[in-house]
Every structure is written in structure tokens, then in C-alpha cells.
Amino acid sequence: MNELPNCPKCNSEYVYEDGSQLVCPECAHEWTPGAESEAAGEEKVVKDANGNVLQDGDSVTVIKDLKVKGSSSVLKQGTKVKSIRLVNGNHDIDCKIDGFGPMKLKSEFVKKG
User: Fold this and answer.
1) Are the C-beta atoms of residues 27 and 12 closer than 8 Å to each other?
2) Where is the Protein YjdM C-terminal domain (predicted)?
3) Helix or strand or coil: residue 69?
4) Predicted model pTM
5) CA pair distance 75, 96, nearest whole angstrom
């Protein structure tokens, strides 16, 4: 008999095959076998406006004036940001900017350097 893995979400042993996917009847989780282990090994590549790959700890420069949500101030073009941290989500750069404090930025509005 073909041995199926336990559910990665709830660890149930009652997993069954439905076409090319595996299904857990207890928590209704569906997945493709082998896909989750491949996804765990992949890291999202974050690139700046020029296509340079960004990494944690890089310094970047803002390439256009950005309105700060919830404030009347503007983050000016040319502002340098040191020691960025990459995060998942729409705003993929987490940083602290002198004079503004902690902030999240989109990588498309910065350049490396």
C-alpha cells in the first residue's frame, strides 16, 4: 500500500489523494505533494528599482518623494536609509529613518547604494 504523509497543518494521519493533490478530512487542508518542501527552500528575491538584488543590512536611497501615510510630511527623494530588513508583504522593506522613525517601504521606490 502507498504510504501517504501526515497533514502538514494538523498532523492528521487520515490524508487521502484527490487527483494530484492530497486532502486532509479533519482540517480541509489541500496541498500538492513535494510542493511545500520546495517552497520552504525558496527565498523571495527582492530587487530595487534598477533590478539590483537587495539583502538585509543594505543601504538604499529613496528615488522619488513619498507621502507618509497618516502624516502631512513627505519623505524626500535622495533620503538615505541604512540597515534595511527584508520582510514579506506588499511593503517589503522594514527600516528606521532618521527624523521619521520606523517605516515600511516598497522596494520599487528605492535604489541600492
Assistant:
1) yes
2) 46-112
3) coil
4) 0.61
5) 12
Which triple of cell numbers denotes residue 36? 511545500
Give the integer Cα–Cα distance in Å for 91 and 61: 16
Q: Give residues with Cβ within 8 angstroms of 102, minimum separation 6.
A: 94, 95, 96
Q: Where are the beta strands (DSSP E) in 1-113?
A: 16-18, 21-23, 30-31, 60-62, 66-67, 74-75, 80-81, 85-86, 93-97, 101-105, 110-112
Dihedrals phi, psi of 69, to nearest 5 degrees = -65, 135
What is the residue whose three cell numbers read 505533494? 33
Q: Which of 42, 12, 13 is nearest to 27 (CA)?
A: 12
Counted residue by residue, the chain has a size of: 113
Express each pLDDT in 16-55 by its tens digit: 998 888 999 998 888 887 765 444 545 678 999 999 999 9
CA distance 56 to 94: 10
Domains (ranges, CATH) in the chain? Answer: 1-38 (2.20.25.10), 57-110 (2.30.30.40)
